[in-house]
From TrEMBL:
GO molecular function: xanthine transmembrane transporter activity
Cellular compartments per GO CC: plasma membrane
UniProt-recorded name of the protein: Xanthine permease
Any matching Pfam family: Xan_ur_permease
Record-stated family: Belongs to the nucleobase:cation symporter-2 (NCS2) (TC 2.A.40) family.
Length: 462
């Protein structure tokens, strides 16, 4: 066997044996596996999809995550960054897609994702012309609003799922509490990189308790096959203008997160600034692969910050090593047993684990605001956008006099309102607004913002 030079793990194109690469690929899968599948279960439940449909979508989520990661690692034309970025199903879209799926149906959500993904992909190819308008403070308040918007989703799952006959029952509350406490205990007691597995630990403990309590539906296992192909176009896309506009706005929000993740990865993993070509390819991959994801009935895809944190901790940036993880994800997509297990997961268990993840997104947003700097201008942008975005959407009747299209996009979508207000404020307010406080820092583009890594090596972004 070829000699293994350990230092090649820390080189983008270092030559390493496949056998040596596999453990590092598996490590990246474990860091993102649960977060990759959770959005599917949440939106699918809101859409009223059957267990077999959820299982099929979980298969598709693994397939798309693997394909998206490979394209990031090894670009096709100008799509892909060429960087060790791990892709997965995005939580950013959960709130808006839950609303669309519940109101118009899952087919409309799929149609909106296809169109929105193509738009983001095209914008990604021309990112150098527009990305400077997304300043660090804009990205920070958007991430914060995403966290706040997901809290209701997590609480609903904690109670057993919106519309469930036993919503808020003692059994659901107990299962959610057991899962949450298990996550917290593991997070406190685990050391180093094993902390990445706290959510997975909570799901395992919660699932075991749900089995004992008789809360798991095993019907999906009865007709399970050992091997199955993911289905292409399982849902016929339907196109609704309001849904398309709403989802496209969130794609712009997702692009700001991708800019941050890509920039952070080059700094913590490669010790250099990100290149324009890499940013453009990364955003284009986000968009075009999201459209491909919708063709398999799945949700939009994006870069995963927890995996950037893993790179920051291990310094392993070898593309071959991370590609082994992507290939394993693709192979897992053809094994229905994984899909059936996750589809049978009670919502209360999922809610107990994910509500902590959503809280972490809010804290990450606060950290990003701190890094952007507490100038008077930044404070004004953050205060205005969060107050209007979160406040107005809690009283949706304020939008009653607006056209139906505006209502469908903004009335119950705080992330879209926060994003719009923050961008406008960032463009309108004078750049030389007074700076206050010793901690104030000059505004920089998201691509230039230094990442924050905590003592365990986790990247402090959402």
């Amino acid at each position: 066997m070829k000699a293994f030079v350990h230092e090649n793990l820390f080189k983008l194109d270092g030559d390493i044996p496949v056998v040596r690469a596999i453990p590092y690929g598996i490590q990246h899968i474990l860091a993102m596996f649960v977060a990759n599948l959770a959005p599917i279960l949440i939106v699918g439940a809101a859409a009223g999809l059957a267990d077999d449909q959820l299982g099929m979508l979980v298969q598709s989520a693994m397939l798309i995550a693997g394909i998206g990661t490979l394209i990031q690692l090894f670009p096709l034309w100008r799509v892909g960054s060429g960087l060790p970025i791990v892709m997965g199903i995005s939580f950013t879209f959960v709130t808006v897609l839950v609303g669309i799926a519940a109101t118009y149906g899952y087919n409309v959500a799929i149609g909106a994702i296809i169109v929105g993904g193509i738009i983001e992909g095209v914008l990604g190819l021309f990112a150098k012309y527009w990305r400077r308008i997304i300043s660090p403070i804009v990205a920070a308040v958007v991430v914060t609003s995403i966290g706040f918007s997901l809290l209701g989703v997590g609480a609903s799952s904690f109670g057993g799922g919106s519309g469930a006959a036993d919503f808020g029952s003692p059994q659901n509350l107990l299962l959610g509490t057991i899962s949450l406490v298990s996550c917290l205990v593991f997070q406190v007691l685990a050391k180093g990189k094993t902390k990445q597995l706290s959510v997975l630990f909570g799901l395992v403990i919660g699932y075991a308790c749900a089995v004992v309590a008789g809360a798991v539906d095993f019907s999906g296992f009865q007709s399970m096959e050992l091997f199955a192909l993911p289905q292409l176009m399982p849902f016929t896309p339907e196109f609704n203008l309001g849904a398309i506009v709403s989802v496209t706005l969130i794609f712009l929000v997702s692009a700001t997160e991708t800019i941050g993740d890509t920039s952070a990865l080059t700094m913590v993993g490669l010790n250099r600034e990100v290149k324009e070509k890499e940013l453009s390819g990364s955003i284009a991959c986000d968009g075009f692969v999201s459209s491909l994801s919708a063709c398999f009935g799945c949700l939009p895809i994006t870069s995963f910050s927890q995996n950037v944190g893993l790179v920051a901790m291990t310094k392993v940036v070898n593309r071959k090593a991370i590609a082994t993880g992507a290939v394993i994800m693709i192979l897992a997509a053809f094994l229905p047993v994984i899909s059936v297990i996750f589809a049978s997961l009670p919502e209360a268990v999922l809610g107990g684990c994910t509500i902590m993840m959503f809280g972490n997104i809010i804290v990450s947003g606060f950290q990003m605001i701190a890094r952007a700097g507490f100038s008077q201008r930044n404070i004004l942008i953050a205060a205005l956008s969060l107050a209007v975005g979160i406040g107005f959407t809690q009283v949706s009747a304020l939008f009653a006099s607006f056209p139906e299209l505006i209502q469908s996009v903004f009335a119950q979508n705080c992330v879209a309102v926060v994003f719009l207000v923050a961008v406008v404020a960032n463009l309108v307010l004078p750049k030389d607004a007074g700076i206050e406080g010793a901690t104030a820092m000059s505004e920089r583009s998201t691509a230039e913002a230094a990442p924050s890594v905590d003592e365990d090596g986790d990247l402090a972004t959402a």
